[in-house]
Amino acid sequence: MADSKREIERKYEATAETRLPDLSRVAGVSSVVHQGVGELDAVYYDTEDLRLAAASITLRRRTGGDDAGWHLKFPVASGIRDELREPLSDTLPRSLAGLVRSRVRDGALVPVVRLRTARDVHRLTGADGSPLAEVSVDTVRAERLIGGEAGRQPGGETGGKPGGRPGRGATAVWTEIEVELADGTDPALLDAVEKRLCKAGIRPSAAPSKAARALAETDPGDGRGTGHGRAARRGARPDTREDTARQEAVETVPGVRKDEAREGTAPGTREGAGPVTAGDHVLAYLRAQIEDIVALDPAVRRDLPDSVHKMRVATRRCRSALRTYRRILDRGVTDPIGDELKWLAAELGIDRDQEVLDARLRAALDTLPRTLVLGPVSARLQIWSARRGGSRGRTVAVLDGDRYLALLNRLDALLADPPLRSAASHAPGRALPRALLKEYGRLAARVGHALELPPGHDRNLALHDARKAAKRARYAAEAACPALGKPARRFASRMKAVQTLLGDHQDSVVARDALRDLAVQAHAAGEQGFTWGLLHGREEATAAEEERQLPAVWERAARPKVRRALGG
C-alpha cells in the first residue's frame, strides 16, 4: 500500500517581485529558517478528456526535492488533500492505478502538463525548534503536453500519435506562495499566517492547485466540448450532479399547506436551473448516488473507515430509485442495471456484514462481568472472526473486475441517454407522491403480515422483508425531498425509524445464529458453553423487546396525515 499523508495547505498569488513579510511575528512562530532553493520537475497524468482534473484529483511523477516519486492526491476539503506516494519508477505503480480506475475506466493515462518549479523554502519553527509549517515561494513554468501529439510516456520518453487537440507546447509562467502545515500543527496557524500575508498585500490564489492552473492557462480553447476542460480551469468537478438539486418545483402536493410547500417555488426553466419535472428530480438523485459510488471506490480500496458501508448505501439507493420510479424510467433498460447493482451491494455486504457482526459480538462480550466469562471465549471469538475474514481482499478483487467496470459504464450511459417514460415529464407533485405511496403500501402489507405471525422463524423472515420495504420507502422519500419538501422529509424520517428498529432486530437474528455456531464449536473442543448461551439469551430478549415496540413505532409512522400529506 502506498504511503499516505494528509496535506493541509493554502496558496497565494505572488509576482517575481513579491517578498515575504516577517513571519516570525506570527503568534506561535519562534523563527523562520531559510532552507534554500530547490528545483522540482513534475509531469502530471490524466486521460485525454481530463477525467481526473474534473474530479480535482492529481496524479504526477516528480523528480527533485526530498519526496521524488509518484504522487496521487484526493480532495478532502478546501485546502486539504490526501496524498499517496510511491517510489520513483518508469511506470505508474499498480497501487495508484487501482485508486483512479473508477475515474479512468478503460481510458489511457497520458502526460498532460509538465511543471518545472524553482522552490524557495522557508521553515517556520516553534520555541522548541520543531517545524510548524513550510512557506515556499514557487516560480512555476508550465508546458502543456497534450494536443497535436499524445506527449510523453511515463518515464520521460517522447512520442505519440498525431491527431490530438491543438495546444501542445503552450506554456505559462507564474509565481505563487504555498503554506503547508507540518504534521501535528494546529490548523489555526494557517489563519495567523494568512492574516500576516494579507497585511503585506498578498492575496489567496483562485486556483486550487498548480495542475489546475497550468491546465487553465495553457488551455487552447473551450475544452473542446468535453466539459472537463472547463472544470479544470475553474478547479472543480464538471456538472456530474445537479448543484441545484435541492430546489423544488412550483406545484404543491395535494393536502399540504402552502407555507409548508413554499420551499418548492419554481426554479425557472430547465436550462441553468434546478430540476423541473419528475424525471429531472429522479435523474438528479441517481446522478448523486452514481457519483458517490465512483468517488468512494478509492476510499474502499484504501480501507478508510465506513467507506464500504457508504458505498453499499449509495449502491442500494441507486437500485431502489430505479425500482421505485419505474413509471418514470423504462424498466426494460433499468432492470438489468438494477440486477448488477444488487450484485455489487451483495459483494460489498460480505465485508460490511462481517464487520458489523464482529463488532456486535465483541461489544456484547465486553459488557459481561468477568465471573460470567467461562473458558477461552475471547480466543474462540478471535479464531472464528479470522476464519471468516479475508472479505476485504475479495471486495478489492470485485472492484478490479471487468463486471464492476462494465456496471460503471452502464450507469454513465443511463445518465447520458436516460430511458424516460411519459410520466417523466409530469410535475413532481403529481408523479413522485404516487411512487412513494406505492412503497408505503408495500411496507404496510409486510408489517401487517409479520405482526400476524407468532414469534419464531417465520416471523423473523417476515420482519426482515418488512425491513427491506422500509428501507426502500425511505430511499424513495429521500429522492423526492428536493421536490416535495417537508412532507417527504417527515415521511423519510418515519420510514427510517421503522427501518432502524427492524434492522436492529435482524442484527439480533444474525447474531444468534453466529452464537449458536460458536457454542457448537466450543462444545466440540471440550470448552464451556455457558457464556455463549448467556449471550444468545440476551439477544433473544433484545429481539423480543424490539418486536414488542414495533406496533407503536409503526403506528407513529402510519398516521393518516402522512398519506394525506403525500396526496393519498
In short:
The protein is α+β, with helices and mostly antiparallel strands and 568 residues long.
Based on DSSP secondary structure assignment, what is the total number of beta strands? Answer: 8
Characterize the overall form.
globular
Provide the residue-averaged pLDDT.
85
Could you describe the largest sheet, including whether it forms a barrel? 8 strands, antiparallel, barrel
Task: Give the number of helices.
Answer: 17
Record the strand order, biggest sheet: 1-5-4-3-2-6-7-8
Q: Order of helices and strands, N to C? A: EEHEEEHHEEEHHHHHHHHHHHHHH
Structural class: alpha+beta
Helix content: 40-55%
Question: In percent, how much strand structure appears in the residues?
Answer: 15-25%
- Unreliable spans are 148-166, 222-272
Cα distance spanning the termini:
54 Å
If you compute it from the alpha carbons, what radius of gyration comes out, rounded to the nearest whole angstrom? 28 Å
Describe the protein.
The structure is a single chain. This protein has helices at about 50-55, 95-100, 100-105, 190-200, 210-215, 230-235, 280-300, 305-325, 330-365, 375-385, 390-400, 400-415, 430-450, 455-485, 485-525, 530-555, 560-565; strands at about 5-15, 30-45, 60-65, 70-75, 80-85, 110-125, 130-145, 170-180. It has about 575 residues and is of the alpha+beta class. It has an eight-stranded antiparallel β-barrel with strand order 1-5-4-3-2-6-7-8. Residues about 150-165 and about 220-270 have low confidence and may be disordered. Helix 9 packs across helix 12. The protein has 17 helices and eight strands.
